Amino acid sequence: MFRVSFLFIILGFACLSCKSEDKNKAVDDKEIIEALLKARYNKFLDYKVDSMAFARSYNPKTAAIKKVPSKDWTSGFFPGNFWQIYMLTSDEAFKNKAKKWTAFVEKEKFNGGTHDMGFKIFCSFGNGLEVENNQEYKDIIVKSAQTLSTRFNEHIGSIRSWDHHSDVWQFPVIIDNMMNLELLFEATKISGDSTYHKLAVKHANTTLKNHFRSDGSTWHVLDYDTISGQVRARVTHQGISDDSAWARGQGWAINGYTTVYRYTKQKKYLDRAVATANYFINHKNMPEDGIPYWDFDHPDIPNTSRDVSAAAIVASALVELYHYTNNDAFLNYSKKVAKSLKSVDYILPDDIDAPFVLDHSFGDWSHREEMDEPIVYGDYYFLQTLLRLRDLE
Ligand code: GLY
Questions:
Q1: Region 11-35: what's the mean pLDDT?
Q2: Which helix (H) or strand (E) holds 58?
Q3: pLDDT of residue 385
Q4: Does the pLDDT of residue 123 top 50, yes or no?
Q5: Is 352 left (phi over 0), alpha (psi -120 to 50) or beta?
Q6: How far apart are alpha carbons 308 and 293 in whole angstroms?
Q7: Is the C-beta atom of 116 inside 6 A of ligand 1?
Q8: Cα of 367 to ligand 1 centre, how many Å?
Q9: How far is CA 218 from CA 211, 272, 367, in A?
Q10: Pocket-testing residue among 173, 252, 313, 373, ligand 1, by greatest number of atoms within 8 A of Cβ
Q11: By the 8 A CB rule, do 218 and 175 touch?
Q12: Is the distance from the beta carbon of residue 370 to the nearest atom of ligand 1 less than 6 Å?
């Protein structure tokens, strides 16, 4: 009954939006967004705050919410979602919840065993800092950057991504690692210590030189030789094959280089983001609604899953890239994705009791996990897209 009425609300708002599209589209969008977010996240304002239980995904087969500790690479997204809902709605209850969840991520500032510092610390404390000028949050960001710096290898010119599979890889660097650079750039802005900025630029340059194919796409994993500093192998871990274009990986590259351009204003980074964005939005296997299959080269297309998270990561980046390029194709893609994701095709049915808005993200093929499920980072980049589109207006 509630599901029906919830869908009715969405469709009702969607109709409202169609009718008055010319008059005041922004206001209608806001109503839809608030209806979606509050109906879903409001229920989880009482969700038990616990450093071991960050909501990550929902498994429809077991009807269970997957909860993870703060050390998981996704822990920052759940607080980040509450911060962003607060920014969208100005409802203090979401801000209070965001602060509580954010505090539980703090201990990760000492965790040098992973490169995922940006995802964990910047999506939580970084968003918090955007809401309030909080010295404690600034100190945590700088300490986290210091810890992340210990993974940088001067000879190779990169931050090491993973420590696992040390029998296979000497020094693996994954394209996802580009998403850590914002934390480093901000740490320099906060502290005045240029070390972090310089290190981010070196990582971006090494990745720029080695990680991209001539068609604009990116490999997922590069393995570097620790003695020669040269590339040993170009492979995948989460894509369908070594030479395929894993959709979310393309998203990390586009988003990452757009961010590097923001902090450096060097054209080579803008060119990189633009080339990979063009590859992504114009791909022959990109469906009409802008939500890609989880790997552009999957042999079973169209009979394989989409990845909402990849679409949202790129949609968010392309609002910013539009700002730098005035290329309408980029803004059109972002708007198309935002519209598609607000439709019943992608909104999680309301009778599913989980703190997520969107269904159909694709997690990790290497573990055969979270394939076609609601995943916290799908919501995160969707919310970021909505905020960026709102700010553009
Ligand atoms: N490592 C982040 C991802 O799975 O996209």
A1: 51
A2: strand 54-59
A3: 97
A4: yes
A5: beta
A6: 9
A7: no
A8: 12
A9: 6, 11, 21
A10: 252
A11: yes
A12: no
- Which residues are CB-contacts of 162 (< 8 A; sequence separation ≥ 6)? 114, 115, 169, 172, 174
Are 9 and 35 a contacting pair, CB within 8 Å? yes
Whether 129 shows a pLDDT value over 70: the answer reads: yes
pTM: 0.93
Collapsed DSSP state (helix, strand, coil) of residue 293: strand
Rounded CA separation 130/122 (Å): 11
DSSP state of 49: P
Which comes out higher in pLDDT, residue 200 or 393? 200
Residue with tokens 């931050």: 159
- Give residue 58's identity as a one-letter amino acid code: Y
Q: Which atom of ligand 1 is nearest to the CA of 249?
A: 5
Is the separation of the CB atoms in 139 and 186 below 8 Å? no
Q: In angstroms, rounded to a whole number, what is the distance separating the alpha carbons of residues 263 and 199? A: 13
Q: What is the largest CA-CA distance in the chain?
A: 64
* Angle separating helix axes 267-281 and 195-210, nearest 10 degrees: 50
Query: Residue 91 corresponds to which tokens in the numbers above?
Result: 């409802």
To test ligand 1's pocket by mutation, which of 71, 119, 176, 218 has the most ligand atoms within 8 angstroms of CB?
A: 176
Give CA separation, 37 vs 34, 58, 63, 242, 311, in Å. Answer: 5, 17, 21, 38, 19
**Predicted confidence (pLDDT) per residue in 87-114, tens digit:** 999 999 999 999 999 999 999 999 999 9
User: Do 259 and 181 form a contact (C-beta atoms < 8 A)?
Assistant: yes
Q: Angle at the Cα of 54 (from 67 to 293), degrees rounded to 5? A: 70
Contact 248 CB / ligand 1 (< 6 Å): yes
Average pLDDT, stretch 67-77? 97
The helices-and-strands tally (H runs, E runs) of the chain is 14, 9
Closest residue by Cα to atom 2, ligand 1, is: 176
What amino acid occupies position 79?
Answer: P
Local structure of 113: helix, strand or coil: coil
Distance 249 CA to ligand 1 centre (A): 8
H or E segment and range at residue 273: helix 267-281
The residues carrying an active-site annotation are 116, 176
Sheet holding 172-174, edge to edge: 172-174, 221-224, 231-235
User: What letter would DSSP give residue 125?
Assistant: I
Q: What is the pLDDT of residues 250-280, one digit of tens each?
A: 999 999 999 999 999 999 999 999 999 999 9
